[in-house]
Amino acid sequence: MAKEPWRIGVLFSRTGATGAIEQTQLNGTLLALSEVNAAGGVLDRPLEAVAYDPASNLRIYRQFAERLLTIDRVRLIFGCYMSSSRKVVLPLVESHHALLFYPTPYEGFEYSPNCIYTGLAPNQSSLQLAKYLLEMHGSRFLMVGSNYVYPYELNRIMTDLVVQSRGKVLDEIYVPLDAEPGHFDGVVSKVRKLKPDVVFSTVVGRSTGLFYQAYHAAGLESADIPIASLTTSEAEVADMPAEAAAGHITAAPFFEILPTPAAARFVKAYKAMFGADAPVSAGAEAAYFQVHLAAQAMRRAGTDNPERLVGELRGAEFDAPQGRIRVDPENNHTFLWPRVARIDDARRFQTVWNPGLRVKPDPYFITQSLDDWSADALLRPSVGVGKP
């Protein structure tokens, strides 16, 4: 008789404004589940996903989270992309004494004992991107973002870093979350008029491709004024022409063509399962390794009891495709490996700066110096700005 599976909740959108990027996170989750089960599961019991599509809609995120916790009776939920979705799901998770695994870069300034944060905190992303941009492109920034909490907070943090370096933010513009092409007419007009050194974009989801296409169609060139982002990944780039994407910049801990054996194995397995053209994003990688982290913790604890698992997860490490990651026992966030990359003519991210160190998460951004990232002991030979 087959043993009863461990049931886990999976809450990533496959449709709506952020459906493309969340699909990559769902794929990363399903790949990890298949690997765990192929290796015998957890204590000889398979992991079974109970998955719903919240359709990028906050009301539906909340409905499905409540269903997972009260009807499906799961104790662990893997999911959420936008900060606004995390903010509607997490109170439910806390009230049911469950545990959320959140694999997305976010604005920080949060801690919950019921959440394991495996995406970038601001000191693992904004600091590195700001340092690269200020040294390589200049100090006059224009900011454009989607109209919700993550872009507001990221732009505030980036503004602090730019001003700290005697730079200037020329303007800050917001467009609807699910913007149409016409919403970017005013943005490109403002870029033409103000001629910043850099456009810092926190536009998310399918609007990202529309923005880059409007930028290119307006004759704005990445060689003159690059768009720099923390949210433009392989998933968004797959939705835009190569000429609109080329030359723009992203900071992330993982890129699809990262030249390491671990990354190559992950990408090969991902594409074997989901197709050769399926984009592999940093969000997919975080969604992947957090399932393995959870499975390891369940084996050690002998249960999916969230309180017991959190105790096992604090300080836990895993050899992820980006490098060896670790859950910080102080704040439930994860030590990660920041990198900066530029998109080439074939829509691939080519690393232009690899600091070569694992950075301790500082979700409250206590240290805001561009030269102090609270790196831990896992240092590699440093690589200078501008070098791959």
Summarize the structure.
The chain is of the alpha/beta class.
From the spread of the alpha carbons, the general shape counts as: globular
How would you state the average pLDDT, rounded?
94
CA-CA gap between termini:
54 Å
Query: How would a textbook summarize the main sheet?
Result: 7 strands, mixed
Strand content: 15-25%
**Count of helical segments?**
12
Number of strands: 17
Uncertain segments are 375-388
Specify Rg, calculated over alpha carbons: 20 Å
Helix content: 25-40%
Class inferred from helices and paired strands: alpha/beta
Sequence of strands across the biggest β-sheet: 7-6-8-9-10-14-15
Order of helices and strands: EHEHEHEEHEHEHEHEHHEHHHEEEEEEE
Task: Write up this protein.
The chain is α/β, with parallel strands linked by helices. Helices cover 37% and strands 20% of the residues. The chain has helices at residues 19-38, 58-70, 83-95, 126-136, 149-164, 185-194, 207-217, 234-237, 242-245, 261-274, 282-301, 306-313, and strands at residues 6-11, 47-52, 76-79, 99-102, 115-117, 140-146, 168-175, 198-202, 227-229, 249-252, 317-320, 323-327, 334-335, 339-343, 349-353, 357-359, 375-379. β12 and β13 (334-335) form a beta hairpin. α1 runs parallel beside α11, α2 runs parallel beside α3 and α4 crosses α5 (149-164). The longest helix is centred in the first third of the chain and has 20 residues, at 19-38. The radius of gyration is 20 Å and the shape is globular.
